[in-house]
Amino acid sequence: MRVVQEKFAELDGQTITAYTLINDHGMEVTSIDYGCIITRMMIPDRDGTIENVVLGFDTLEEYLQHSPYFGAVVGRHAGRIKNGEFELDGKLYRLAKNDRGNHLHGGLRGFDKVIWDSEVKENADSVSLIFRYLSKDQEEGYPGNLKMKVTYTLNNDNEFTIIYVGVSDQKTVLNLTNHSYFNLSGNMKRNILDHVLTLKSDYFVELDEQLIPTGEFRLVENSVFDFRTGRKIRDGVVSKDRQNIIAGNGYDHPFLLTKNHHPQIILEDKESGRSLTIETDQPSVVLYTANQLSGEFKIRGINSQPYLGLCLETQGLPDAIHHSTFPSTILEKDEVYRSVTKYKFSISVKS
Fold first, then answer.
1. Which of 21, 44, 116, 208 has its CA 20 to 30 A from that of 159?
2. Cβ atoms 206, 212 nearer than 8 A
3. Is 179 noted as a catalytic residue in this protein?
């Protein structure tokens, strides 16, 4: 186990560093301290060919100009907040509006667009990268000085774990996730339409025309939202279900997870043999199939296009502050927010 550090770029007089966590089996995870962005995940296929399985860029300039949250930690609140405002204890808080009059993924300068303090921790069977950031009171409109700590850990079992910890000196809202776009074909050789996804979920959250939750939980049964026994992503792209159409012909939906600390999410690419299993303590995962990914830029030489990757954003529900039936994303003063998501990669033998 080891960590390699190198200069990635400079921004406003500050050095951006790239850290590569490497285990003894050829798995590598590279992250930069701008936005805690995961730029690469190098994973072997069934033939032993090691390739990148996430979307990202090679330069900071590309992240600044084009990135749709590739690989970043997003917050303070992942997902959309309707009208960019909410009330706590009778006080109205107005947030930055960056999505058709709504607030999305922390606003104009969320956690994905700041430089985090970073340090490395090495152990015999794991290596960790620890990021820290102080989000000051009223940053993007949120109340409270929020101390954040995000830890990325890679071990020799090909497990990559993210631990989020936050404490605020005022009552606030907090909902964090990582926004990596996965493509298990390796180096984006194919799109993700034939990836097979399994979700332990009986319900998904209905969205309105602006992709804001309506508050209704819909049963997945007898629909293309039923991933309980595995389903190709393609099914939702060609679906005539209104929910798929308003999302841009695909998925951009929260799914309620039926179990915690259990393999709730499995993504497979049959051709490469790569499989990703995700366990989380979060109540939901947002499945986004890159329906809105534009063709206005290149990603490591490949034209950006819809369905080139998919996101599995483990988190609380978007807009939870406006829905009393949703699990709460309110964080009390001095309360410790802690969340863990584990990603495990494996290889299937060709049948």
1. 116
2. no
3. yes
